[in-house]
Write a structure and sequence with these properties.
Layout (H helix, E strand, L loop, with lengths): L1 H10 L2 E9 L4 E11 L2 E10 L2 H7 L5 E6 L5 E6 L6 H8 L8 E7 L3 E8 H13 L3 E7 L16 E3 L3 E6 L2 E7 L9 E4 L2 E4 H15 L6 E3 L2 H97 L5 E8 L18 E8 L2 H12 L4 E12 L2 E10 L2
Parallel strand pairs: 1-4, 4-8
Antiparallel strand pairs: 1-2, 2-3, 5-7, 6-7, 6-14, 9-10, 10-11, 12-13, 15-16, 16-18, 17-18
Length: about 400
């Protein structure tokens, strides 16, 4: 599963095969693009273009492809074999006196026959470089009709596969012959490959895509460019890892910097706030010290009142607050409010058994319900509204609650 995930990240789920046909001067390129969705392969695009530049212009999201060289620069011969002989012997038997190091070859083997394809390395390497200049990597390639081998087991009921250039004869999924297709006799045929309907113009390309997904059968097809393909695939992986990794790394660093900035900003704000609070506390402490002497003088005046009312006042206030809706904001709540301001050397006069409540609400109905609730409290003798004013969306109020004796 991990290998599959890694492959999908690097290669994606889009597969492309490009088949070079015709001549080097009068070239056409068949493009077949397939996509894998939910384990099912679907053919997305079919097209024929004239140049490599056209491919990138029309399919700019492509990153890699399988290249098929099936033009007049690929030579093919058939030789008979009687035993498992080395590839070099077969190639030299098909093309005597060639400089083998200058050619890529690919061989389809049967029990008694070998079908040999060769093409100059310089030409194929040049094509690969041309595609790379267009930011399209060639990770694998095949010569002639060798890509069709990957479809033999899927076309066991087919006796003949006809492409634009070559016709392959089959018997129960095994190759029995390869012949040139006569151009004037060529007619487009459709082949059913595991539910995929593909015409003969693109069946070779489909074989290349199936080879990408499933690999090659080394017993049927051998070549001398496996190592070179490995280099291309490694080169492409490095390029993709760099292309994917750099943005991810930059993104991760930016995220780390952002988190670090947020933490720094948070703690800097906290420290600044604490410093301000500390300075305020110092000022408050100085004011408190000055007022402490005044408070001490007045403390005795209130002790008697507080001592007698403290226990009952806590109960009254707790009951009132518990029933208060959340839409009401209290401005004041006075128990035993003063009748007159406190004056020096004058007795303190309070309005006994009375609670004055002032505040603001945004929902008048909630205020009405609360007043009704206050009237129903067991210690309430009466509730009266002393002040009610509308200020925009808010309503200010004053309530006088008389406690029963």
């Amino acid at each position: 599963m991990l290998d599959s995930l890694t492959r999908n990240i690097i290669y994606g789920t889009t597969y492309c095969a490009l088949e070079h046909r015709g001549t080097d001067r009068d070239m056409s390129i068949a493009v077949l693009i397939a996509k894998k969705r939910k384990g099912e392969l679907l053919l997305e695009e079919r097209a024929v273009v004239s140049t490599v530049e056209d491919i990138k212009e029309h399919y700019d999201t492509l990153r890699y492809a399988h290249l098929i060289i099936n033009n007049d620069l690929v030579l093919q011969k058939t030789v008979q074999i009687t035993q498992k002989v080395p590839d070099t012997v077969i190639v030299n038997g098909a093309f005597p006196n060639i400089e083998l190091d200058a050619f890529y070859y690919e061989i389809i083997r049967t029990e008694v026959t070998a079908y040999v394809y060769i093409c100059r390395k310089a030409y194929i390497d040049g094509l690969i470089k041309t595609y790379e200049d267009q930011k399209l990597f060639i990770t694998a390639w095949s010569l002639g009709s060798t890509a069709l081998v990957s479809l033999f087991s899927l076309l066991e009921d087919v006796s003949e596969i006809q492409t634009v250039k070559t016709t392959l004869s089959l018997e129960k999924g095994k190759l029995t012959g390869i012949f040139p297709t006569i151009e004037r006799e060529y007619q487009t045929r459709y082949y059913d490959v595991e539910g995929l309907k593909v015409e003969g113009d693109y069946v070779n390309a489909l074989g290349a895509i199936v080879r990408i997904i499933g690999g090659t059968d080394d017993d049927l097809v051998t070549t001398n460019f496996n190592e070179r393909e490995g280099e291309q695939q490694s080169h492409f992986k490095q390029h993709r890892i760099f292309a994917i990794g750099v943005p991810l790394t930059i993104g991760a660093l930016l995220l780390i910097f952002l988190v670090n900035f947020l933490f720094y900003n948070h703690y800097y704000t906290e420290v600044t706030s604490l410093q301000e609070v500390g300075e305020t506390n110092v000022l408050q402490k100085q004011l408190l010290i000055k007022k402490d002497s005044i408070v001490n003088q007045k403390q005795k005046l209130f002790e008697d009142v507080i001592e007698s009312a403290s226990s009952s006042s806590s109960y009254f206030l707790d009951e009132i607050i518990q029933e208060m809706p959340h839409t009401i904001l209290l401005d004041g709540l006075q128990y035993h409010p003063l009748v007159k301001k406190i004056r020096k050397n004058k007795p303190v006069i309070v309005q006994e058994n009375t609670i004055i409540i002032t505040g603001t609400t945004t929902v008048n109905n909630d205020l009405s319900v609360w007043i009704s609730t206050l009237e129903g409290l067991e210690f309430t003798e009466s509730v009266s509204i002393k002040n009610l004013e509308k200020e925009g969306r808010n309503t200010t109020f004053g309530i006088e609650l008389l406690i029963g004796s």
